[in-house]
Amino acid sequence: MRHPHRITARVGSVVTATAVVSGLVTAPGLADTPTPLIENGRTQPVFDYADAVYHEVDIETEADSDGDGAPDTVRMRIMRPKESDDGLRVPTIIEPSPYWSELNDAEMYDVDLDDEDAGTVPRSGGGYRPGGLAGTDAPADPEELRRSAAGGPAASMSNYYDNYFLPRGYAVAQLDSLGTGGSTGCPTSGAHNETLGVKAAVDWLNGRATGRDAEGNEVTAAAWSTGDAAMTGISYNGTLPVAAATAGVEGLKTIVPQGAISSWYDYYRENGGVVAPGGYQGEDTDVLAKLVYTREDREICGAVLDSITQDQDRRSGDYNAFWDERNYRNDVGDISASVFLAHGLNDWNVKTDQALRMWRELGEHGVPRKMWLYQGGHINPMNLRMEEWLDQLHRWFDYWLYDLDNGIMDEPAVDIENADLSWSAQDDWPAAGTAPLRLHMNAATEGARGATGTLERVPERGRGQEESFTDAGRTVTADTLATAPEAAGENALVYVSGELDEDVRVNGFPKVSVRAAMDGASPYLTALLVDYGTDTRATGAVRYDRDARVCYGEGIPEDPGCTYRSRHKTETRDYKIVTRGILDARNRLSDERQRPVVSGTMYRYSWEMQAQDYVFKAGHRIGVVVISTDYDYSLRYPSGTEVTLDTKASTVTLPVSEGRDGYRG
């Protein structure tokens, strides 16, 4: 179903610059009632940030996740122009988060499995043992909230939304998600109660939920709120807006999720395998819930946290009811808000599939959408391309929250930062003309174990059909195994193309299909798509130019509305792992149920790698590296699993939009 932009009349209507008299913005026919100033189809910064009204409200939700017999509540901190006490009515930009309070310590799981029953046949005993929490570095991005603590503000807020948008006629709010900070209820790493928590904020702005101040007095937003809201944020802060949107809550006009989760299964599991987000090996939903469990009562949610540990099922990695509840893509058809996605193409924390599968679903359901893809990792795009980001975000919010026809919906829907760090725009993703290019994994010279095979359009005749390697991922990283195709030795199978005659752009979901046999402890098959060729490439990390502070908005001495531009960290190397995909062999037929793997028996295994948009340059070679254990992401079973591929029946399919003729083979 399609979701046309709905135009509504509001009491606090906007006025154009011609309605400004002596610097005072007044609404025609409503003497002394202030209104936003509009010039060139945009709200202008006419409201004094330093005079902003600040208040807090505890909002009742429809959940009782802590089981105390009372509705869970979420605490929202609000800043708004002081003129909203004098008749100005404004929309609200909300950033929900579990991270606004200081976080707890939480133990990661030990991912090195040593139990006797470890193996490709489903296990009935043994398991994991808890390990220590590795130290985590504070994020380099000043606006990044993943694993960092930001105290609740009294006269300003972290991030940039308040400094930029409040002077332009917006209220800006921070919301403590359930079980965190000043809220009640329990944190559940994406369950439905968390959806109800963020939904309640929009309900309160529209008079559908009860809110109370610190003294317990009932308060409403009727005098200052238009009822229209946006939600935004990065990481978990961006995931909660996705959850709210799938509830179809009236009044939520748009969301802007950055580096956000659309399916929690795909964050902690992959094709039946138990996996970790990049940089957090051993984390799972219960670890995260314990980390953010910062509400005042630290005992009441014990049973809820225990149920998370049980239901997440680290024993099998199967997709079950626990994960289905946390799959927001199931409910894209209920979204009535527009969606502006932003995601780093080098994000191995919240991987690219989270945004790009969501993008596909949004398109299939006719949801108004826009997207930025950039060469960063798990970072905020604002500092990378500050003026353009603020320009587009400003016009996006003005269009959806103030009904201003400013051309934002007439522009190309997708902005992409290319591998060479240039930017381009296109109408959709994948790019028009993208088509599959199937390449065969042809064996190396018969009998040369550890030699490099080839990637060609047709299967090679007259060569051996089977090649084997021994899993060493327990101690050797995928990066090491991919360093050079000639150096993989006996611990990987490597297949490379000839040198490309022209640039080849891969954009979409690469797919691997192999016929293979396994014998040993590890149930994993991992495929790496590798760019072989010396080049200077973005690593996903950024550095900040702290010698040149940029002020983008208004503020106060403690929060001046300034930040630093960021630039990509790059490195010159002979290769880059472009994307990867992991499969648990026992889930070869379904994510939902394991099936036994008989040692030495050939089976068909097919799985997709993480979505990617990448240009392999002319003169480079495209490589596919097949390994078992992925040291940084998968569970690590005892080394030594023998994997044999039938190369006559093994292929990789690349979604190619440019340069198909440049592929020789």
What would the keywords be for this entry?
alpha+beta; disordered N terminus; globular; single chain; 32% strand; 14% helix; 32 strands; 665 residues; 12-stranded mixed beta sheet
Q: Can you walk through the features of this model?
A:
By secondary structure, the protein is of the alpha+beta class. Helix content is 14%, strand content 32%. A 12-stranded mixed β-sheet has the order 12-11-7-8-10-9-13-14-17-18-19-20, with helices on both faces. Strand 2 (20-21) and strand 3 form a beta hairpin. The longest helix is centred in the middle third of the chain and has 17 residues, at 386-402.
Concise overview:
By secondary structure, this protein is of the alpha+beta class. The strands form five sheets. Strands 12-11-7-8-10-9-13-14-17-18-19-20 form a twelve-stranded mixed beta sheet, with helices on both faces. Strands 21, 22, 23, 24, 25, 26, 27, 28, 29, 30, 31 and 32 form a twelve-stranded mixed beta sheet that branches. Strands 1-5-6 form a three-stranded mixed beta sheet.
